[in-house]
Amino acid sequence: MIILGIILLVVGFIFDIQILWVIGIVLLVIGLVLFALGSMGRAVGGRRHYY
């Protein structure tokens, strides 16, 4: 999810498409939150680690 967010940010920036930029930021933030929760040992979505 983090990688997809970064790809959408880059594509949205290159082609100047605002909606891809916004979706990329949202996916990046959600991915980072899930990664942080998973690395702290909390179960996220029934899994101990979120990769």
Task: Describe the protein's architecture and organization.
The chain has 51 residues and is an all-alpha fold. The protein has one domain. The protein is 69% helix and 0% strand. It has two helices and no strands.
Q: Outline the low-pLDDT stretches.
A: none
**Radius of gyration, in angstroms, nearest whole number:** 13 Å
Query: How many domains, as an integer?
Result: 1
Q: Overall mean pLDDT score?
A: 86
Distance between the termini: 9 Å
Q: How many alpha or pi helices?
A: 2
Strand content: under 5%
> Count the strands?
0
Largest sheet: none
Give the overall shape, derived from the CA principal axes: rod-shaped
The secondary-structure class comes to mainly alpha
| Fraction in helix | 55-70%
Order of helices and strands: HH
